[in-house]
Amino acid sequence: MRLELDILNIKDVQFAEKTTISDRVLYINRNELQKLLQQDKRLSKVDIELAHPGEKCRILQVSDVIEPRSKTSGDGEDFPGALGKQGTVGEGNTCVLRGTAVVISNQSRSRDITASDMGEDAMGEIIDMSGPAAEVSPYGKTHNVVVLPYPTDEAGLDEYKIALKIAGLKTAIYLAQAGKDLKPDETEVYDLPPLTEVAKSMEGLPKVAYIFQVYCTSFPAMAGEPILYGDNIRRLVPTIIHPNEVLDGAIVNPYHNIRGCETYVIQNHPVIKELYRRHGEELCFVGVIITVSQYTEPERERTVAIAAKLAKSILGADGVIITKASGGAPDIDVAQAAQRCEEIGVKAVLIMYDVASGSGLEPMSIIFNLPGARAIVNTGNEWLTLILPPVERVIGTPVTLPSGISSNGELIKALNWLAGALDQEGRSKIISVRY
User: Is 142:134 a contact under the CB 8 Å cutoff?
Assistant: First the structure.
């Protein structure tokens, strides 16, 4: 299966009378895009704003971040199952607007807020376009098209959350279609043949698979939520998929799992891209197994057993890399998966950030200690805090703020409230090191 990502390097984004790309500037007809998104009857209106690197601007209530992409050849649809008819992706050509991002901002007044979380959840996850938060997040360096959908009075909260995701996906496609007839600045090629052929001439290299945990069932799956080809995957058993499908829109970030695994990260998956880079040189990349973090122990045991068996007996892996979905409970799933792989002769490495300390001032730790789950790449501590300077402009609306807190003033924020600051798949700029 061969996928070619045709990259257009966008240097600026501006509003204009026509949506087009000229001299690597993306021009957007705001009214046309608004009309497209407002066709969704769950939304009363949609605002569109722009935020640029270096601008003293803060984006609130970030629900997801998506890179603008659209298929230009091949049989696949754009985000099949989530939008339009069913199908598969991972082959042909896809236009990518590198240097831009679609940021979805939740504009509902009901956001599952609890009194104890009001100080943080009032602004939700944020993106600062300047200052220390912009340095640790990739989204402080992209030209961001911020989509702010407002729900109708009739739309339920779950319906609205799904409408948010759909609005973001539609925007990503709409923008990328402006570049479909342009010559790309560069092309990234991802070509991995069937399993019967992939190891030919690589007999001396270790075979490596990737176990990608994409969802945590600690958060209830919403009916109709598009995660894998439009399905909410609540009952998913470990499944082998081609890595190109991950890169090409088969999987989008679940609403409750945003932290550390935005759709933008999945589209540019660092583990998959690094395995591709080393394929044929240092290792033989044999495939991807997707899993979910289970809520009960029997389900967890079943998932762990199936994932390990697929890695060893189907893909023939000598080693696996395992990453987790957001939260603390998924730590146990990936630890047990690593332990089981080691027991059957497959070396396992975990990539994860720790969630157990509760404060950036306390010792950082993980919540398991299992034989076989000791090779860990730590990508930081979600409770480490940064001081963010005041900004001149705020995009998005906070829930009622506690006394003394201003959305545009100086903030002290933990990394888990800064979109993109931590990355479940290892792209973080912040790591923890044990000497």
Answer: no
Give buried/exposed letters for 252-286 (b at 16+ CB in 10 A, else e).
bbbbbbbbbbbbbbbbbbebbebbbeebeeebbbb
What single string gives the DSSP state of each residue in 142-164? SEEEEEEEEE-SS--HHHHHHHH
Surface-to-core class of residue 435, CB atoms within 10 Å of its CB (0-12 exposed, 13-18 middle, 19+ buried): exposed
> Tokens for 98?
């590198």
Residue by residue, DSSP assigns 290-308 as EEEE-SSHHHHHHHHHHHH
Tokens of 11: 């240097």
pLDDT tens-digit series, residues 167-224? 999 999 999 999 999 999 999 999 999 988 988 889 899 999 999 999 887 777 788 8
Question: Which secondary-structure segment (H or E) carries 119?
Answer: helix 118-121
Would the pTM of this model clear 0.90, i.e. be above it? yes
Residue recorded with tokens 């996928």:
3
Helix/strand/coil for 247? helix
Q: Encoding tokens for residue 145?
A: 């098209």
- Using CA atoms of 265, 271, 275, 276 in order, give the dihedral in degrees to the nearest 10: 0
Taking the CA atoms of 394, 11, 133 and 163 in sequence, report the sign of the dihedral they define: positive
